[in-house]
Amino acid sequence: MQFFINTVDPVGSPPATGMRALFMSKSDSSGQAAAPKASLQVWWQTARPRTLPAVFGPLLLGQSLVEAPLFSWSVAVLYGLWAVLLQVSVNLANDLFDGLSGVDGADRLGPARALQSGLLSAEAMRQGLFACLAVAMLLGLALSIVGHWLMALFTLAALVAVLAYSGGRRPYANLGLGEVVVWVFFGPIAVLGALIAQQSPLHVSAWIAGALVGLPVAAIMLVNNLRDRETDRRAGKLTLAVRLGPQRSQLVYAALILLPVVLTAPFATSVLPGWLLWPGWLALLLVGLALNHAIRHSSGAALNRLLGLTALYSLAAAIWLSIPHWGG
User: Fold this and answer.
1) What whole-number distance in Å separates Cα of residue 232 and Cα of residue 226?
2) 184 or 39: which carries more pLDDT confidence?
3) C-alpha 232, offset from chain centre
4) Is 175 within a domain?
5) What angle do CA 235, 241, 247 make, to 5 degrees?
6) Backbone phi, psi, residue 184, to 5°
7) Where does the chain have alpha helices with state H?
8) Model confidence over 251-264: pLDDT tens digits?
9) Overall number of domains in the chain
């Protein structure tokens, strides 16, 4: 997610910065030959569908909090498309900007990136990113019309977050704030935004649920950055995992994973009979403990599997947090 990138072109001209790096043509970027025309399968892989549980969970939780008389399926669908497009935009921006800046190299431990592996050209990636962002902006405008003007503000904030993660003269990834921003957007904003779009009141329970559901999603980012810690450090990308090191990052991961479960034990008596809910609570707790054990005994490419499992756990945690509101 880089907005302002320093790159050096093959003829030795000064490094491109700011808007030039984002808008420069493929012949100006990194000297790479144009990739062949991509298939739908390549675009699908580049969109990273395995990351979508991270957005589905907060979406489901937010809609469960909407008061029944105010719920609209059309608004819910619009809101879901808006959120998914922003998530896809994040993935495209990461692929594009990390490829241009040299963060993604031959020693990358994560799944192959489209630009890095030559499946897509930089120009094609830019076009795909702009297309996703443009549609997301239009959906955000529509939601601000049918829902509340705050949706326009949320959309602009999301645009900045997508483009400024590892860009700008002081990218917030270098400040170790990636996990914080993920928590904000996949927690409070995602949940409260669902209510705002539906013109539903913002109760205290919604604020609490939003704060809790964003924690496991932030843990996904932490696993990603822990896996890439060495390559990020060499590239000068000072993520939270680079700053904290493995052991302290693992402690933060444990807190992000377990707090939503530990703090919601009283929910297990709120709606359904306790004998139905306590097993679910215990199962989620045991899975969280297993993930915490796994991160302590995994490193490098082995964290790829844990990343996917953490994403699924975030979805399960969101479903758990929604249970107290099923009767509403």
Assistant:
1) 9
2) 184
3) 18
4) yes
5) 135
6) -60, -50
7) 19-23, 40-46, 53-64, 73-101, 114-117, 122-146, 150-164, 178-184, 190-197, 204-227, 229-234, 240-244, 246-262, 274-296, 303-322
8) 999 999 999 999 88
9) 1
The secondary structure of 118-174 as a DSSP string is TSS-HHHHHHHHHHHHHHHHHHHHHHHHHT-THHHHHHHHHHHHHHHSS-SSS-TTT
How many residues does the structure list for the chain?
A: 328
Q: Containing domain of residue 235, as a range?
A: 33-322
Residue 93's contacts (CB-CB under 8 Å, 6 or more residues apart) are 1, 2, 129, 162, 163, 165
Phi and psi angles of residue 7, each rounded to the nearest 5 degrees, phi first: -130, 155
In a domain, 23, yes or no: no
Q: How confident is the model at residue 283 (pLDDT cuts 50, 70, 90)?
A: very high
Any idea which residue has 């829902």 for tokens? Answer: 147
Q: Would residue 197 be called left, alpha or beta, if left means φ above 0 and alpha means ψ between -120 and 50 degrees?
A: alpha
Q: How far is CA 2 from CA 163, 268, 321, in A?
A: 5, 43, 33
The pLDDT of residue 267 is 62
Most confident listed range (16-30, 73-87, 261-275): 73-87
What amino acid occupies position 283?
Answer: A
For residue 7, list its beta bridge partners: 16
- 188-228 tens-digit pLDDT: 999 999 999 999 999 998 999 999 999 999 999 999 899 98
- Establish if 26 belongs to a structural domain: no
Paired residues of 16 in beta bridges: 7
User: Under 8 Å CB-to-CB from 144, ≥6 apart: which residues?
Assistant: 150, 151, 152, 155
For 89, the 3-state DSSP assignment is helix
- Say how far residue 137 (Cα) sits from the centre of its chain: 17
Q: Does a structural domain hold residue 12?
A: no
